[in-house]
Amino acid sequence: MFSFELDVHTHTVSSGHYTHDTVTDMIKYASQTGIKLLGISEHGPAIPHSCTASYFRSQSLAPSLRMGIHMLYGAEVNILDFAGSLDLPEDIMKNLDYCLAGMHLPCIKPGSLEENTAAYIHAIENPFIRIIAHPDDVKYPVDYRRLAEAAMDCHVLLEINNSSLSPDGYRGDVKENDRTILELCRKYRYPVLLSSDSHGHSNIGNFTYALALIREINFPEELIINRSAEQFLRFLYNR
Ligand SMILES: [Zn+2]
Ligand SMILES: [Zn+2]
Question: Model-level pTM?
Answer without folding.
Answer: 0.97
